[in-house]
Amino acid sequence: MSKTIIVSNRLPLSLNINQNEVEATPSVGGLATGLKSVHADGNGIWIGWSGLTEEEINPSLAPNVEKALENQKCRSVSLSEKEVDGFYYGFSNRTLWPLFHYFTEYSEFNNEDWETYKRVNQKFADLVIENIEDNDRVWVHDYQLLLVPQMVKEKRPDVKIGFFLHIPFPSYEVFRTLPWREEILQGMMGADLIGFHTYDYERHFLSSVQRLLICDLDFNNVLYDTRNVKVDSFPMGIDFNKFHNAAIEHSKAKVKSEVQESIDKHKLIKGDTQFILSIDRLDYTKGIAQRIMAFEHFLEKYPEYLGKVRLVMLAVPSRSNVPQYQDLKNEIDQLVGRVNGKFSEVNWTPIWYFYRSMPFENLIDLYCSCKIALLTPVRDGMNLVAKEYIASRVDNTGVLILSEMAGAAKELNEALIINPNNLDQIADAIKTALVMPEKDQIKGNIIMKDRVQRYNVERWANEFLVSLEDVVSKKPETAAR
Ligand code: ADQ
């Protein structure tokens, strides 16, 4: 029986080692949910890194770790601390991540990191090759593994390989600055199907391939050597039912969480307070600093809302080993301090700032209690939070203010779409959202919710795999064209 081999940087689980006991707990992230049925189907397996370095796993425990992973149908690539440093914190997050999000000034071109990236990608590819049986298909994910498709294709040209990029693909003018641009494109072109969130990313990729690898295009098919590589867009969805059902439960719950109690208490004291929600990983691509400044500008421009509006800002700690993330953390701490210092009253602070991950139930509380969601990334492949917010609005009220730079804006165009660098426009959008009649909120949200429900994460995974199955990988003969 053939199987799908999923390959991603991190495995969809976390490992806990307690003395001699090894426990593997499945994670509940979007990718893990979307690929659950593919992974569970038949003898499908997931290949990735466990999150623990070779130095962190006692050699005598290694067999137990393997066993715990195997029970979850996972195989782990073993990485040393040095490899994680060069491959993950280095080339992936100091070179590719900033460059692909148009932060060219942050992108470091370090040859040693590039060598480590190649070596680690080869480790992933070797483990994939070791696990391939005839008629299997391979689905590789994201910017950490751009070279894996070609490395696998070289050894197993008979196997169908899909690749999906979760972040934007930049325009040719930005991508061309990368010293190893041809090698990266060749790596991706080992796949038979390459997927992006939006048509724009697809177009940028095709333009780079055409100019740098000098090959012909036939619509969205690249004629590459003897092969045909299909390039297409597959906007990723969310597990709609999970968010929607949890929100319904939330509305019925008798026992309230701490977060919900604080919100209710505040509403009781301040009566007409409105809560504006902002949720992201703490990342310079998410436009968090601009968002705080736009909120500050809103309070200055519309002082009648002082004491009546609060920004609830959640930032999940992320990549804190990378200097730009440490600087950003300091900048945000200062900005929050400045705004709160400037406007706070005895019973009111304008910004509630949480620098931590929140349990799912608290996220739902916030999605349900905040009448406005303010998501202003300066670049974002998709932005799943926008879709989660819409899915959680049981009564269809609420206003989503969304950056035009997020892939999600292509699908959620009934939201208030803003340019994240235009602080005045954001301030006005907040005002518009605060006075928007409920019937208008409901009208737009019903349309968006229907779309988010139909194009859920399972459908996204299925459509990608069906398309992969249908790709005719052999380039048509010139005479036949
Ligand atoms: P991310 O950059 O991580 O993903 P996003 O799509 O918004 O961004 O997903 C974040 C996830 O983390 C959401 O599911 C959200 O619920 C959760 N989350 C956020 N804050 C949290 C908190 N404080 N506590 C707990 N959970 C929290 C990358 C790309 C995106 C792309 C996705 C999927 O950068 O553009 O949408 O992959 O392809």
From TrEMBL:
<keyword id="KW-0328">Glycosyltransferase</keyword>
<comment type="pathway">
    <text>Glycan biosynthesis; trehalose biosynthesis.</text>
</comment>
<dbReference type="GO" id="GO:0005829">
    <property type="term" value="C:cytosol"/>
</dbReference>
<protein>
    <recommendedName>
        <fullName>Alpha,alpha-trehalose-phosphate synthase</fullName>
        <ecNumber>2.4.1.15</ecNumber>
    </recommendedName>
</protein>
<comment type="subunit">
    <text>Homotetramer.</text>
</comment>
<comment type="similarity">
    <text>Belongs to the glycosyltransferase 20 family.</text>
</comment>
<keyword id="KW-0808">Transferase</keyword>
<dbReference type="GO" id="GO:0004805">
    <property type="term" value="F:trehalose-phosphatase activity"/>
</dbReference>
<comment type="similarity">
    <text>In the C-terminal section; belongs to the trehalose phosphatase family.</text>
</comment>
<dbReference type="GO" id="GO:0005992">
    <property type="term" value="P:trehalose biosynthetic process"/>
</dbReference>
<dbReference type="GO" id="GO:0003825">
    <property type="term" value="F:alpha,alpha-trehalose-phosphate synthase (UDP-forming) activity"/>
</dbReference>
